[in-house]
Amino acid sequence: MSTESTGTSTAENAGGATPESADEDQLLVLTAMLLTPAQFPSVLGNDYPEVCAGLGLAPYEQGYGLVLGQDGTGARWTVVTDDVSLVACAVAAWDCGMEYDLSPGEDSMVEALPGWPIALAVAAPGVPAPHDPEPEEGGPAVLRPPDAAQWGPAQRRMGADEIALQWAAWREQVEGEVTFVDPGARPHTGVQRALAEARGYVADPPPPGRVRSSFAADASRTLRVDGPGWSMVARTDDIAFVLLDEQPGEILPVGRGPELPGLLQALEALAVRPA
Q1: Quick check: 77 and 70 in contact, CB under 8 A?
Q2: Model confidence at 224: pLDDT above 60
Q3: In the structure, what pLDDT confidence band is assigned to residue 175 with cuts at 50, 70 and 90?
Q4: Which stretches does UniProt call biased (Polar residues) (predicted)?
Q5: Where do the structural domains in the chain lie, given as residue ranges?
Q6: How far apart are alpha carbons 98 and 115 in whole angstroms?
Q7: DSSP per-residue codes, 169-210
Q8: Closest CA to 5 of 65, 52, 56
Q9: How many CB atoms lie within 10 A of CB 34?
Q10: Could you tell me how far CA 209 lies from the centroid of its own chain?
């Protein structure tokens, strides 16, 4: 499958050249994302090996790029490429509002998977509306985004991602409320379980990507930590938020207390970071 970039950067920002005629085997690129130990779509799993397994990929340390688009018939496809640098450059350029022609070479393509793992609100110009391709006998299952109306692990992880992206807004909501679920003062079974499992990661490091670290304000870092049934997002110099499968849509703040600072520093020490 050959690719052609339409100049699209994200699901909310489509545009670019309109192909006058699209070949059935040509992928018209809509967006792309990284799949590496330090950066992957949380919607797909708790850690990098789990996400790779779900896509039928080997968990190579260097990772992959996922390129989402449509073929000439309008069918949805996700092309996996091992040209991680190309995809990283494209994503960085798009994030800055710049155009970037993302066209991975055929020799870098690892797999072409039917469907999209996430929902996109846009479509390639000049081709039929997005639709799933017909499944092939013995081929991979069609990728589909999780049901947004149902609360579950995918929605819980996406919620934690959103808090990490909008930390200041979420932090401000609890600034005037002394409702922190402090482990030393207000025991909460689900939160205690999540914190205990997170402490267990320090003694027995989990699979790559289960604990991730990214840049935050000043000298602090933002941590994203996941486990079975729970997700946590925290700033190393501040508090944490925990989301649980058993409490749909609820966000539980965890105050600094006597234990949290040391736990966050220990998790930061073993976290993977973007290159």
Answers
A1: yes
A2: yes
A3: low
A4: 1-12
A5: 2-114, 153-270
A6: 27
A7: HHHHHTTT------TTTS--HHHHHHHHHHHHHHHS--STTS
A8: 65
A9: 18
A10: 11
Q: For the residues 214-223, what does the mean pLDDT come to?
A: 90
Length of the chain: 275
Long-range residue pairs from 99-104, CB within 8 A, at least 24 positions apart, any chain: 99/7, 99/16, 100/5, 100/9, 101/5, 101/7, 102/3, 102/5, 102/29, 102/32, 102/67, 103/2, 103/3, 103/4, 103/5, 103/29, 104/3, 104/65, 104/67, 104/79
- pLDDT above 70: percentage of residues in the chain: 87
Taking only the tens place, the pLDDT of each residue in 84-122 is 999 999 999 998 999 998 988 889 999 999 999 999 998
Task: Average the pLDDT over each of 26-35, 84-93, 109-118, 131-140 and give the range with the smallest value.
Answer: 131-140
**Which residues touch 98 (CB under 8 Å, ≥6 apart)?**
none
Band (pLDDT 50/70/90 cuts) for residue 61 is very high
Give the angle subtended at the CA of 53 by the CAs of 47 and 55, to the nearest 5°.
105
Nearest 5°: the CA angle 35, 39, 40 is 50
- Look up residue 176 and give its two tokens: 């005037």
Which residues neighbour 147 within 8 Å (Cβ) at sequence distance 6 or greater?
Answer: none
In whole angstroms, what is the distance from residue 76 CA to residue 49 CA? 24
Contact 117, 78 (CB under 8 A): yes
pLDDT of residue 182: 55
Alpha helices in the chain (DSSP H): 48-54, 84-95, 153-165, 167-173, 189-203, 260-270
Across 197-217, average pLDDT: 95
Asked if the model's pLDDT at residue 14 lies above 60, the reply is no
- Residue 143: closest CA among 88, 80, 101: 80
* Single pTM value for the model: 0.86
